[in-house]
Structures are given as C-alpha cells and as structure tokens.
Amino acid sequence: MNLPRTSKVILITGCSSGFGLLTAARLAAKGHIVFATMRNLEKSQALLGEAQKRNATLRLLQLDVTDNLSIQKAVSAIEQEFNHIDVLINNAGYGIGGFFEDLSEEDIRRQMETNFFGAQNVTRQVIPAMRRQGEGKIINITSVAGLYGLPGFGAYNASKWALEGFSESLYYELKLFGIKVCLVEPGTYRTKIFDENRRYAANYNNPNSPYYHYSQHLKQRVDEHVKASRRDPEDIAILIERLVNSSNPPFRNIPDLKSKITYTLRHFLPFRVFSGILYKGMLLGMKKPKTVSPSN
Ligand SMILES: NC(=O)c1ccc[n+]([C@@H]2O[C@H](COP(=O)([O-])OP(=O)(O)OC[C@H]3O[C@@H](n4cnc5c(N)ncnc54)[C@H](OP(=O)(O)O)[C@@H]3O)[C@@H](O)[C@H]2O)c1
Fold this sequence. Notes:
Strand 2, helix 2 and strand 3 form a beta-alpha-beta unit. This protein has nine helices and eight strands. Helices cover 47% and strands 11% of the residues. The strands form two sheets. The protein has a six-stranded parallel sheet, with helices on both faces. Strands 5-8 form a two-stranded parallel ribbon. It is globular. The chain has one domain: NAD(P)-binding Rossmann-like Domain (Rossmann fold), CATH 3.40.50.720. The protein binds NADP nicotinamide-adenine-dinucleotide phosphate (NAP).
C-alpha cells in the first residue's frame, strides 16, 4: 500500500493501558498507521474508546512479547499489508517489588522474560525488515530504574538496566544499516503499573521475612509517592511522537525534571554520597523488626 511520506507504519507493544494505549491513540490521530498490539485482545475496549475520542483509526493485533509465535504472526500481518515497518516501540512491561531474598528465582526470571527478553524477542523479528529497507527506528521504553538502583526494586532495576545496556550496544550495531535506536526513561507516572498490574515478591507479605517491616514501609512510601505524582502520562506519548517524527532523535530521553536531576546527581556525585542520601531517604527511620527469626 502506498502511503504519504509523513505517515509511518508503527508497531507498539502493550497497548491495553498506560503509555502504550495513549501513544497508539495519539500517533494514529496524527495520521500514522498504528499497529497497536496487546496480549489479550479482550482488553481492547479502553484503547478503542480513546481512539474514537481522538477520531483516530488504528489496527489491533494480538502480541505477547514472551510468545515468539504471536510476534511472528503480528509482524508478518504488518509486512503482508505494507511490506515495511518504520517504527517499533517496545513498551510492554511490568514491575515487581520486593527485596532480593523475598523474590523467588521464578519472580526474577518472569520479570526478565517480559521487560528484557520480551523487548529483544520483538526487536529480533522486526530488524530484518528494517535492514532491508535501510532505515527504521526502535524506541525502547526503559525507566529511570534502568539508570540507578533502588532498594526493593532489584528485579525491575535489573530488567531495565539490561534493556539499557542492550539498547546502547544495538545503537551502534544498527547504525550500520541506517536504523536508529533510542530510549525513553520515565520517572513515576500514574498508570496501571502501580495499580492492578503491580506485582509483589513471593515473600513480600510474609511476616517471617527479615525484610517484612522494610517492605511494608517501602510499599507505603511508594504508594504516597505515586499518589502525589501529578505527571501526565500523555507527556510520554507526546515525547514518543517527537522521537517518531525526528530524523535524528537523541539516544537518551528522560522526560521529567526530577528524574533528570537524580540521574545527573547519580552520574556526578561519588557513589558514597549519592547512596548515603538515598539510603537515608528510603530506608532510615523505618520501623526496625522487633525479632529476627533464628532460621534467618
Ligand atoms: N508508569 C510509570 O511510572 C513508568 C515509569 C518508567 C517506565 N515505565 C515503563 O513503561 C512501560 C508501560 O508501562 P505503563 O506505565 O504504561 O503500565 P501499564 O498501564 O501497566 O501498561 C503495561 C502494558 O504492558 C502490557 N504487558 C505486560 N506484559 C506483557 C506481555 N507479556 N506481552 C505484551 N504486553 C504485556 C500490559 O498488558 P496487560 O494489560 O495484558 O497486562 C499493558 O498493556 C513499561 O515498560 C514500564 O516498565 C513506566
């Protein structure tokens, strides 16, 4: 199918809610050909409602980033219709909270399967089309959690940190073929990631865990932090739109000021100073466990 030069063929993962939903609706409203994907199409009502509100038309496809067959089907459906893919937005993801000893190996592997291997799975199947075209753009939604570690978020930190490292390496490899890679690294935005999609470590709520008091306190702190966040998730859709339209997008994109400042401090302060501030702010002053079980 022939398209006006400004309309791009875009594949986005994780469009049933949050950034993915808003980005898909926004890009479609701006005249792009958007293939909005989600693992469960029964959840498409919210996206379709948003698209209708914006007078936008988009195409829906089923895609679970942990299921290579579903990725293959989605990618070939796009290629059959358009014979090319201009932009891939790796957005699907979730966060699991919990201290390392409270997390099971399965908790951590699952987190990596979605946030890290999931993005790689989709990327792997899209690159050949982009290489043939001699152009393309891959936008990976990581997080500030990929730039500095936080207590109680180790699994999420690791998954986003891995995605950051992989993306930086891929940036060079795909530049050889005219394909651009860039990152979006949001701070805290109120989406379902902190609500119904939030996951907890296997032992998060186990009162016998030596971390129980800390994790309960941290949960309360995170809830307050999320509740206080006034950032509009649409800002992420606006940023992604800018990256889609840019012929030379910056590699790193931290959208909110507080995260930019924290990242700069993490970069320039000695770790001893930065970690001291964070430790004090997040862990000191928490209720200490009264007893520690001898089994621990
Ligand atoms: N909100 C924030 O503050 C924030 C900050 C930094 C980074 N991020 C990142 O932004 C991205 C989007 O998150 P969000 O805030 O918009 O959260 P969200 O509203 O929970 O959306 C997450 C989306 O990912 C999908 N998803 C999860 N596992 C999937 C899988 N295996 N295959 C396909 N889709 C899957 C979810 O689908 P289901 O409905 O089927 O679960 C949902 O559509 C994530 O990568 C997240 O880590 C968010």
